[in-house]
Design the sequence.
């Protein structure tokens, strides 16, 4: 009880995050077995260490007043943009496709994906901008440099090597802008401009692949395989994923007894939900979905109860992308959407992506722990974003 009493913030969020994290040890242990006995334990120990560090990140972050993120985002976001530029121009390729997503940190042997941090701090930066200008009549021209320029830089730098992440960040940016009462006519214009720019990028990438390193062929194959997964061998992943889910039936084949883990690529990351469903059945799969829905509900409640505009927006900014990513991962496994390469938060094997997820929940818990804190200048407007 003394340990629980030291945990600040929403206890339901604490419970769900820890429950999903600790549960992940089982499918990671099982899915790693297709790499050999030695890899099983090294993979599991690595994952356990990453989760423990992640929990420490969440605990430390939730003790810090979230209002300090206002100034911090202005410092960190430019640094992240510089890292994205460096990452984008590394020239890493896999089978001719742009694979410049990671930065290898010397000496310690850890790969760092700047796009994970970019998503969090870009949305925090936007939340700060909107909270400061909630009573002002914003126009596109005056907000282009302080608001849209960082958005365009982040999205365009991530787009060539990771379309799904860039699209998800852009969608979440538009969502927060809409909730933050940014003029809808400008949001509509940006959506149309985004479609035009994306189309232009595809045309340039198709006709001048050496000029614009990209993964166009990979994206096109994923869409074709979504429409007809039997077209080619590249539909192999989704067919094996669906077979794993079908094998699981209602109660599963049993812990560690998955047969598809030996032949399903990315069984510890992108398609781990299929392995979970095969081993533990439809019942546990629905329970996991329900836990993410509980997180979504608590994110909305925490945002609604926050006494400042910044608190409301930042709770949505750090919380919604995690739940949205979870729905995408599960949607891919059952072929509701094309393959995206997005891991299942808190369950899939990972490194910096897991730590940024824990960082996001630490910030959310910080917001939820401030029961009576609110910036005086925004108190009269604290319910505006909910109409």
Sequence:
């Amino acid at each position: 009880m003394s340990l629980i009493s030291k945990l600040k913030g929403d206890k339901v969020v604490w419970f769900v995050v820890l429950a999903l994290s600790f549960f992940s040890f089982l499918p990671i242990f099982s899915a790693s077995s297709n790499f050999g006995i030695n890899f099983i334990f090294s993979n599991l120990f690595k994952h356990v260490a990453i989760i423990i560090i992640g929990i420490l990140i969440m605990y430390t972050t939730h003790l810090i007043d979230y209002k300090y993120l206002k100034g911090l985002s202005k410092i960190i976001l430019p640094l992240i943009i510089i890292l994205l530029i460096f990452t984008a121009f590394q020239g890493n390729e896999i089978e001719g496709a742009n694979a410049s997503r990671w930065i290898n940190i010397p000496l310690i042997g850890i790969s760092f994906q700047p796009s994970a941090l970019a998503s969090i701090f870009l949305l925090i930066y936007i939340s700060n901008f909107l909270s400061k200008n909630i009573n002002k009549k914003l126009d596109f021209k005056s907000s282009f440099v302080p608001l849209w320029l960082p958005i365009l830089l982040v999205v365009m730098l991530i787009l060539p090597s990771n379309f799904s992440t860039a699209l998800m960040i852009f969608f979440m940016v538009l969502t927060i802008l809409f909730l933050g009462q940014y003029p809808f006519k400008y949001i509509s214009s940006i959506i149309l401009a985004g479609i035009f720019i994306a189309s232009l990028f595809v045309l340039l990438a198709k006709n001048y692949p050496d000029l614009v390193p990209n993964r166009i062929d990979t994206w096109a194959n994923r869409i074709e395989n979504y429409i007809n997964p039997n077209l080619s061998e590249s539909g192999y992943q989704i067919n094996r994923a669906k077979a794993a889910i079908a094998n699981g039936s209602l109660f599963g084949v049993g812990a560690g007894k998955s047969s598809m883990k030996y032949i399903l690529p990315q069984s510890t990351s992108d398609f781990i939900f299929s392995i979970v469903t095969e081993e533990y059945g439809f019942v546990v799969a629905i329970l996991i979905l329900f836990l993410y829905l509980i997180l979504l509900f608590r994110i909305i409640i925490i945002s609604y109860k926050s006494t400042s505009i910044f608190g409301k927006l930042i709770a949505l900014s750090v919380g919604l992308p995690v739940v949205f990513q979870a729905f995408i991962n599960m949607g891919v496994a059952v072929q509701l959407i094309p393959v995206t390469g997005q891991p299942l938060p808190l369950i899939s094997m990972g490194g910096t992506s897991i730590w940024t997820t824990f960082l996001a929940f630490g910030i959310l818990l910080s917001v939820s722990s401030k029961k009576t804190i609110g910036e005086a200048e925004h108190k009269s407007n604290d319910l505006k974003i909910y109409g």
